[in-house]
Amino acid sequence: MEWKKSIPWKKSIPWKKSIPWKKSIPWKKSIPRKAEAQLTDWRLRKSGKALLVNGARQVGKTYILRKFGEEQFENTVYVNLETNLAAASYFAGDISPKKILQYLEVAAGEAIRPGKTLLFLDEIQACERALTALKYFSEEAPEYHVVAAGSLLGVAIHRERYSFPVGKVESLVLYPLDFEEYLWARGKHKLAEAIRNAYESMEALPEGLHLAATELYREYLLVGGMPASVNAFMANDSFLDAALVQNDILDNYIADMAKYATNADSAKIRACYQSIPAQLAKENKKFQYKIVQKGGSAAIFGASIEWLNFAGIVLKCQRIAQAYEPISVYADLSAFKLYMGDTGLLVTKAGISGQTILSGEGNLFMGAVTENYVAQQLAAKGYPLYYWESANAAELDFVLQKENQIIAIEVKKGEHVRSRSLSVFRDAYQPAYAIRLSLKNFGEKDGLKSVPLYAAFCI
Fold first, then answer.
1. pLDDT score, position 157
2. Residue 226 belongs to what H/E stretch?
3. Which pTM was predicted?
């Protein structure tokens, strides 16, 4: 077997032609992803454990890991276990590190050396035996640097046949670009820094910067944070090009539902997925099974919701009735909201016009879009998502726990910020502080921080 034929990287995945990274988005120099620091930390710590990078399809897992290998190792041996069936079939036999390394060295025509080579197993969900093999690298060959990436890991793996290497791998979840990373992509590093400084001091940004950041925030709502969508937009400053990419991604999600689920389950997963814009359009955004199907229930659709959540297609925000530390123990597992994993995908899926987003004109669905954006920023920071609802119908959009502090977050789509729910929550639980996200500039009064929506990534 000749490696270059079995995995023709330059031909079968023509990044340079179909996605002109080097011209439209100079990733290698000016657009670092935050996850790059975590990759470097993993390399320097030399824990001996393989690194498993999970995330929804097309969030940039393959690219960031190939870039990591190029910049921090002498060579990278790349194996796509979905397209290279010959390599995948090898894992059906002896999966000891010694045997695997011998095979891959011959197949690749390259030496795999401890500390010098990055071994990258891509699309690992297509070969669960390869996932199991990561355990033995940790136990028998910890001197090697092994990374694996996969989508749909929580739903594609038949765990009854093979064991997941619990405690033998480190995990990293990659999300779409958050708004700060989007600012970096747009060359607005100084603006991102100014936003962070204003958040720390709670002093208003100069009006010109505030307006510029608000305009870029609205732009981000349309483009979203999927790397291919950002790239397509920046290539020609075209929102239509970004939308074409987003439609492709949405179609790929549907295809995955058919590929990684039975026909019966696939139909239920699609029904839940298709209902998300309608769920968010309601005044009460709690997920309701009856909207998916008349007579629908958790017994019928509960597994479908978990499929979407494990796939990274949606973000699940759990209800809490009480807001004490630790808030996770007060989660009501029967009540939740579902947001799309990327706001740009929600906008395209819902069909809201770009003019409505960019102009900031009044639109009822903009409240849902704004909440989805905040959920995306918080999830990218690693926060579990919770919202609070009281018996007397007061509701707070998000409640976070930072160490031992409870933080209340209210989301407003515009500059109108009057509401009762935040006051009710503060009176009941006395959080460390409260944040009101809106289009208003920075400010603080009586423990309530006014934070512009564009600064959600600072929380």
1. 52
2. none
3. 0.89
